[in-house]
Specification:
four-stranded antiparallel sheet; 4 strands
Length: 92
């Protein structure tokens, strides 16, 4: 597997408490082939023999995307506070 037309990846890194790096990757496919096969193969190549978590659409209505995360069990956890924990900062 080298380059597959229509297969795109977005990657970002995050720092873990021990200063090592975790990674998130979003694989998206926009092509004419079977998206499950293309994405299954891409995930296998991408993760190799490393542990990972894969998030899927709860409604199973978007077979064209996979979200992969490494090391999420090593992230620091806090109690959720709805006044401060938001995807975007609240406007003042």
């Amino acid at each position: 597997m080298t380059k597959i037309p229509g297969l795109k990846i977005s990657e970002a890194e995050y720092q873990l408490p021990d200063k090592s790096i975790g990674k998130i990757a979003v694989l998206m496919y926009n092509g004419d082939s079977d998206p499950k096969k293309i994405l299954d193969d891409a995930v296998t190549v991408y993760v190799g023999d490393n542990g990972y978590h894969e998030l899927i659409d709860v409604h199973f209505d978007n077979p064209y995307m996979r979200v992969l995360l490494s090391d999420i069990n090593r992230l620091k956890q806090k109690d959720f506070d709805e006044t401060s924990h938001r995807l975007k900062e609240l406007k003042k």
